Amino acid sequence: MQKWKENLRVIEPYVPGEQPQNKDVIKLNTNESPYAPSPETGKAIREYDNDKLRLYPSFVCSELKSALMETYPVNESELFLGNGSDEVLALCFMTFFNSKKPVLFPDITYSFYDVWCNLYNIPYQRIPLDNNFRIIKEDYYGKNGGIVITNPNAPTSVYMELNDIEDIIKHNEDVILIVDEAYIDFGGKSAADLIHKYDNLVVVQTYSKSRNLAGIRVGYAMAQKELIAALEAVKNSFNSYTLNSLSQAAAAASAKDKDYFNECVNKIISTREHTVKELSKLGFETLPSKANFIFTTNKNISAEKLFNYLKEKNIFVRYFNKPRISEYLRITIGTDEQMEALINAIKEFKQ
Ligand SMILES: *Cc1c(COP(=O)(O)O)cnc(C)c1O
Question: DSSP label at 186?
């Protein structure tokens, strides 16, 4: 008997979408951008001074922070940088959710939240979305140990108006509320504008989706400085140098290229609107999306069968075999050509 097994930490991990290595695949399953990062990012990486990698990264990450400070109404002490927003969120859960009361999040949302709760033994409660997959704000008025809201939500793509988020904040001034804004740039309004009004609000964003930089692993949190200082202390008790210096330089270069950013985001939004129309001609009902993906269903087609059929055709989308959403597909918005290939493949589908 291997007695050491008693000492293992056993946990069910988060399972991300597949990353097929075959280049011919049309990859619409993990919400990456179909467009290359800004040419400025490429230039920053090519011209990066190799000798700088000899040293540990800057503690203050000032170049990237300055670039972010031009976009959001925050100063350096109100910004926290991390190795992808998953890491930022994991550290937020550890820092802000230390109550015996449950942390609240929707029943259908980013499936990493319950994994972190299990990892840290945080009690949690899933609050059902309504029949249109919307958050019912009154459901968050009760006693709790903190709240996490993804806005726009994933995998539903549904956006919650900022005044409704503010209403939830106002009803929960004694706990921390995290807004995960991984998809906010595709048509929503960031809660970053509320940070100076509420000392219990944390807004988390990422370079992985709207910045076309999933591979660089940069995410950040914005909050009042007391919360950021608490987050820094937890991070520095875990790994003081989380964000490598090359990623910082690449992300800073991307942040400065606002025109390219707007061009990519606008292209994705217009491809999204076109795709929704084309799918509706084929009988699909798609939830109103403010993200770089859509969540769609068809009364006459089995979502699971369509998912498997598309995969055989080398078109990868995401299917969740979970209660309430097992007849939906989550489809990342690619280029116009990729979406046309998707639509054509669906037209040829026979159950
Ligand atoms: C993609 C995603 C993240 C994580 O992004 P990183 O690549 O780790 O920055 C966080 N939250 C949601 C809701 C996401 O969809």
Answer: G
Phi, psi of 267 (to 5 degrees): -65, -45
Q: Whose CA is nearest to atom 11 of ligand 1?
A: 182
Task: List the chain residues with pLDDT less than 50.
Answer: none
pLDDT tens digits along 220-241: 999 999 999 999 999 999 988 8
Q: Indicate the SS3 state at residue 332.
A: strand
How far, in Å, CA of 301 to CA of 259, rounded? 40
Q: Where do we find the tokens 């996490």?
A: 148
Task: Quote helix, strand, coil % in the chain, to nearest 5.
Answer: 40, 15, 45
For the record, the structure tokens of 287 come out as: 């939830």
Cα-based torsion angle of the residue sequence 275, 149, 204, 171 in order, rounded to the nearest 10 degrees = 140
Say how far apart CA 106 and CA 95 lie, in whole Å: 21
| Tens of pLDDT, residues 48-60 | 999 999 998 876 6
d(CA 20, CA 81): 29
> Which residues sit with their C-beta closer than 6 Å to ligand 1?
31, 84-86, 110, 150, 154, 180, 182, 206, 208, 214, 219
Q: Rounded to 5 degrees, what are φ and ψ at 106?
A: -65, 160
CA dihedral 343, 346, 347, 349 (to 10 degrees): 170
Atom of ligand 1 nearest to the CA of 154: 13
